[in-house]
Amino acid sequence: MTIRVFNRLASKHTRLVDLADTARDARNHRKAALLYEKALRFAPNDAAIHIQCGHMFKEAGDLARAEPHYLKATQLTPDDPDLALQLGHFYKVAARPKEAERYYSRAIELNPGWSEPAIELAQLYKSGWRNHATGPKAARIISANSSSGWSNRDGLVPELAPRSPGSQLRAHSEEITIRWLGRRERTSWGAELSILRGVDAIRGFCISASPIVEFRAMLNGLPFYTAPLQALSLKYENHDHRKRKYVFNIWYDFSEFRDGLYELELLFIDENAEVREHKQSVVLAPPLCEDDYPDSDRFVSVSTGNHRTIEEEINSRPSMIRLARRTRFPTPPRNVLIIRVDQLGDIIVCIPAIRRLRELLPKARLVGLLSFNNADLAKTLNLFDEVIVIDFPEDEWERRRVMPLEKQRELQRQLDPFHFDVAMDLAEAPVSRPLLLLSGAPFLFGFKDDQAPWLSAFNECWLRDPINGRQAVPITIKTLGLVEWFGAILSNPSQIIRREDLAIDRLAPYGLAAQDRFAVLHTGARLKFSQWPYYDKLASMILAKTGLKVVMMTDDPLMRSRLAPELAASDRFQLWDQRLPFDDFDAFLSFCTVFVGNDSGPAHLASLRGANVVNLFLARQNWNEWGHENKGYIISRRVPCAGCNIFYDPEECGKGFACIVNITPEEVFRTVMEFVE
Q1: Which long-range contacts (C-beta less than 8 Å, at least 24 apart) are formed by 43-48?
Q2: Which residues does 190 contact at the CB level (< 8 Å), separation at least 6?
Q3: What is the rounded distance in angstroms from the CA atom of residue 591 to the CA atom of residue 588?
Q4: What average pLDDT score do residues 220-224 get?
Q5: Which residues pair with 320 in a beta bridge?
């Protein structure tokens, strides 16, 4: 074969694999499988493609066509424990336990320290196959491969046992993963689509073996963003070490475009001018008003008419400094709509819940939106201040309750004058949930419903029957539990608990007298990337501009070597880089004038003890979920990618954790001064 022909065949193979990968990422499993099969004509001994082909046929439900590809891959790579595990899974799905047992056992033989196939094998026996709970073979294998020597009768939890170091290694697919692309909402185009409003983020990554030299984002074919992407290593890749992870985090002001439906394309161009792409329909909608969302750090607005980049605009904004003590309702709701538009029994099971709601909101007007089937009974029970009766019939053909559009408009007009603060649907079934949208209430509440992402709050209230998995608690209790959850939202039950057995003289050995006022700066946090980097600068400012002493605590053994000489030499400053006895640590937090720390356990402990806490909060989670709740302030930053929930993969940030590093020492110092002056 000539070099030219060989290159042409290799190019066709690569192209087919790329098309198959795209189909796989779009969850078009059969199309992907057929494309992988075509690619195998040019490389019949490519084990990785045989595995992908098998996976896709399996996902498409065609087990007969999947099996030969798995077996061929096994012939090509007979000593791959992960492939043996995959075959075990395949045969388990195919209801062929004998073959599943064979390959799970093979995976254990190939990787003796790996607990996952041992667990699968034990579960296979536990299911009753061969009429024995564990089986001698499983017992031998499990005992030999578990540090605790557990057996199925021990009552232990084998999935918690450590796995072998190589068990996380795998062959990564070349793919594009989207972490955030707008909020999914109802649209006039008849479907839930991703909505981009004003300043928003598009986050994710591309995995590629060929170096990506350019990233381009386009709307309806018009480029609006281009940038190079940094190549990052894949921590768990065990097959092709050329593969790299290319992270993107676009911050963009989409208000520059007209509102409407667009085709978004994300293009990743490699050094060979080959293109990988992600296509998706999105809706560009009008920006919201920042003042309407004071608690959301994802909402960001920028000024127009200047020449700064959007990153410069966002990063130069002041941080958000909010009081830690907070409630969802600053004043109790005054007008509440309660929906129960079904049968007679349905209102009966809600009686304890509605009466409990009356106790929670004694001054509120409760309005019942009821059906003809249950309204008369409700009136006899004096559950509501007012009752609105509607016809919401069940359509047997559509198998749901329906309401024509003109009837919906009529109901809207009827509900508007009440100016409801809250509307809640007490039905567990989701059929009446959309009626909440007609209430005009800003707070919509009900049971969990995956088809209602617009709910302000929800609860599941599930008690599981261990045999059939269905509910095992009366619906009366479930509905009461729903209302109790609403009651918890109404208040802030956080507490200040001081220790009577702890006195400030416990700090005398640390050079702190009873009359001393001091600040504790706690620099540590479990997630290293969530640690604010300017504690030393803050310490210098406190020493220079106040009479406070400063106690800095750190888990960084190199912190001492990085301190400015004048800071380390100050007789009002001390650094602790070793673990203190808990009672001593507790005393520092209990008696400090002010505590400054990251989103960490010590900040919550200081809050529990009643300290004035300044919490420097990384926007990976919402400040109002995990920020402390008693005295003091929470400082955070508004960024379009807030709520990323990054944990094990900090490289996916793509913005250098701007949400923590751009909190300035001056902002923190001004907040500290609230408790000094």
Answers
A1: 43/13, 45/76, 47/72, 47/73, 47/76, 47/77, 47/80, 47/83, 48/73, 48/171, 48/239
A2: none
A3: 6
A4: 95
A5: 636
Cα separation, 606 vs 341, in Å, equals 48
Question: For the chain, what's the residue count?
Answer: 677
With CA atoms as reference, report the closest residue to 74 among 38, 42, 110: 110
Q: How far apart are CA 135 and CA 379, in angstroms?
A: 63
- Residues 547 and 572: their CA atoms lie apart, in Å, by 9
CB 531 within 8 A of CB 524: yes
Supply the DSSP string of 168-234, one letter for each residue. Answer: G-B-----EEEEEESEEEE-TTSSEEEEEESEEEEEEEEEESSPEEEEEEEETTEEEEEE---EE--
Handedness of CA 557, 561, 567, 568 (dihedral sign): positive
Domains of the chain and CATH, by start: 3-168 (1.25.40.10), 176-287 (2.60.40.10), 335-490 (3.40.50.2000), 504-675 (3.40.50.2000)
Burial class (CB in 10 A: 0-12, 13-18, 19+), 471: middle
Q: What is the rounded CA–CA span in Å between residue 459 and residue 282? A: 30
> Could you tell me which of 583, 587, 584, 520 has the C-alpha nearest to residue 550?
520
DSSP, res 244: E
Structure confidence by residue, pLDDT tens digits, 370-393? 999 999 999 999 999 999 999 998
pLDDT at 411: 96
399-458, pLDDT tens digit by residue?
Answer: 888 999 999 999 999 999 999 999 999 999 999 999 999 999 999 999 999 888 889 999
pLDDT in tens, 464-510: 888 888 889 999 999 999 999 999 999 888 999 999 999 999 999 99
